[in-house]
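Query structure, 411 tokens:
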């Protein structure tokens, strides 16, 4: 086996707090019928990499159930497999520590190269091209990199590379970045080099960005592989909603082509009937997934499988996860609503011009998005403002006056 792919998929995704309340970030639904991790898994399959291990940690059930044997991604072959690896005695303390705690698995697999991936980014990449670059440069480590907005550069590991792509400097999340060439968190190691580093390093919270990469630059061949196409970390409510809604633009404006037959995005798909559109339905710019029924009005929204928009209901600029129901007369704007939640008759959610930031956590919600958790039932005629967080444990029948002001958090 030449390449073993290790997908790091154990992060909490704290900034997606309600969406990752009961699932890890890579398992969060995206673009209607998919999960975030589907993009990384599909990249592996399309790149001809079929030996994959997924390192999980927090709330692994949803992710494990979704991946199963890996059949949707053609990972259940006789000569390949997908393996789910969870911590044994101790939890993972850092990205490289997660790999170190599975060093026996790497040794048993005996690959020539190890491809380290994140399970929570949206992009399409041919890893075979990156591997060819790695081999051509005689590299010990190759880091996929992308130019980002300099105003956002402090959120990333920032590197500097010469004309041959050899990396001379790397700083993890610098306060004042001198470059806007960012690490994508995608690495190819020569296996012998990686194993030697993992065996000899005793730092408890060993991390690729903070520890391994800066040390390797001093005495190893470390190169950048520059990537110029679409790549996004959907780790905030703002980026999650905007990234979903970007996919409903006209074909010439879609930043990520989901319809390319040469590079399909695979997923575990539910057996559900075709989309049904009612005689009085009005739909403008939307993604409609299998099993959804629309008899009301849908504008600039993404509907996951089984979503029902009832007559006289109106929704816009929103993302609804599986089996959400919007009852007759309800109005929903600028919302992210998790699975199985029902918006009652004539309710108004994400309503009004009051953009008061979320009082409990203004860093999460300040742009006007309202987020509702799983299995909620919003009572008839209720009004919910903007920048609200409604957790799945909330009992909305106890809300006084049937009104939740903008900036509220209800648990």
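Result returned for the query:
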């Amino acid at each position: 086996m030449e390449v073993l792919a290790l997908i790091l998929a154990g992060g909490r995704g704290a900034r997606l707090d309600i969406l990752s309340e009961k699932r890890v970030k890579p398992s969060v639904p995206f673009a209607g019928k998919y999960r975030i991790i589907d993009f990384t898994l599909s990249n592996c399959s399309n790149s001809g990499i079929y030996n994959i291990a997924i390192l999980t940690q927090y709330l692994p059930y949803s992710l494990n159930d979704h991946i199963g044997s890996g059949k949707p991604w053609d990972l259940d072959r006789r000569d390949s497999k997908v393996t789910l690896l969870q911590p044994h005695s101790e939890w993972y303390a850092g990205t490289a520590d997660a790999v170190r705690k599975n060093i026996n698995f790497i040794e048993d697999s005996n690959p020539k190269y190890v491809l380290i991936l994140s399970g929570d980014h949206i992009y399409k990449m041919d890893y075979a091209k990156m591997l060819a670059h790695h081999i051509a440069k005689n590299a010990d480590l190759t880091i996929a990199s992308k130019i980002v907005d300099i105003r956002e550069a402090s959120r990333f590991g920032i590197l500097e590379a010469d004309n041959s792509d050899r990396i001379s400097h790397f700083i993890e999340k610098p306060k004042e970045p001198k470059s806007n060439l960012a690490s994508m968190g995608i690495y190819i190691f020569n296996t012998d080099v990686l194993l030697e580093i993992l065996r000899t390093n005793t730092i408890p919270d060993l991390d690729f960005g903070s520890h391994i990469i800066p040390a390797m630059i001093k005495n190893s061949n470390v190169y950048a592989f520059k990537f110029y196409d679409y790549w996004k970390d959907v780790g905030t409510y703002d980026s999650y909603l905007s990234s979903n809604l970007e996919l409903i633009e006209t074909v010439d404006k879609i930043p990520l082509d989901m319809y390319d037959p040469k590079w399909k995005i695979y997923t575990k798909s539910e057996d559900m009937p075709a989309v049904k559109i009612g005689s009085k339905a009005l739909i403008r710019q939307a993604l409609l997934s299998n099993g959804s029924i629309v008899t009301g009005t849908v504008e600039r929204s993404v509907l996951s499988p089984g979503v029902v928009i009832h007559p006289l209901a109106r929704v816009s600029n929103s993302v609804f996860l599986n089996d959400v129901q919007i009852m007759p007369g309800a109005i929903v704007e600028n919302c992210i609503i998790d699975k199985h939640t029902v918006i009652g008759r004539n309710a108004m959610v994400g309503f009004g011009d009051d953009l008061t930031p979320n009082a409990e956590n203004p860093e999460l919600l300040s742009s006007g998005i309202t987020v509702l958790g799983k299995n909620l039932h919003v009572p008839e005629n209720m009004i919910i403002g903007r920048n609200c967080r409604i957790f799945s444990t909330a009992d909305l029948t106890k809300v006084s006056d049937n009104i939740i002001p903008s900036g509220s958090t209800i648990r």
